[in-house]
Amino acid sequence: MIIVNTDYIAGKELETLGLVKGSTVHSKNVGRDFMAGLKTIVGGEIKGYTEMMNEARSLATSRMIEEAQQMGADAVINVRFTTSGIMQGAAEVIAYGTAVKFQ
């Protein structure tokens, strides 16, 4: 499965199958929250949150790919990510794009 953030794949003629998406909601844990609070005092990267968001993006992407495969897609083009706060301490990550088949 080819995944790109462009609206084309060089050298390929594409048939559009439709929108695909994958999402997940991740929350902070107490340990991450406590360490993040300390980190805000001295500044710098909050690695626990970085890891959490990387895991969430990876899971959302996997779910998007699974949906594309169920449609018979060869690739997903124009892939985008969006994040939103759901409630205090929880964020939703959505990966979405256009499933296409090679002609």
Query: Treating each run of at least 4 consecutive H or I residues as one helix, how many helices?
Result: 2
What is the radius of gyration?
17 Å
Major sheet summary line: 4 strands, mixed
Question: What series of H and E elements makes up the topology?
Answer: EEHHEE
Shape: elongated
Structural class: alpha+beta
What is the first-to-last residue Cα distance?
15 Å
Strand content: 35-45%
Strand ordering within the main sheet: 1-3-4-2
- Count of distinct strands: 4
Helix content: 25-40%
Arithmetic mean pLDDT: 87
> What low-confidence regions span 5 or more consecutive residues with pLDDT below 50?
none
Written overview of the protein:
The structure is a single chain. The chain has a four-stranded mixed β-sheet with strand order 1-3-4-2. It is elongated, with a radius of gyration of 17 Å. 36% of the residues lie in helices and 41% in strands. The mean pLDDT is 87. It is of the alpha+beta class and 103 residues long. Strand 3 and strand 4 form a beta hairpin.
Annotation keywords:
103 residues, alpha+beta, four-stranded mixed β-sheet, 2 helices
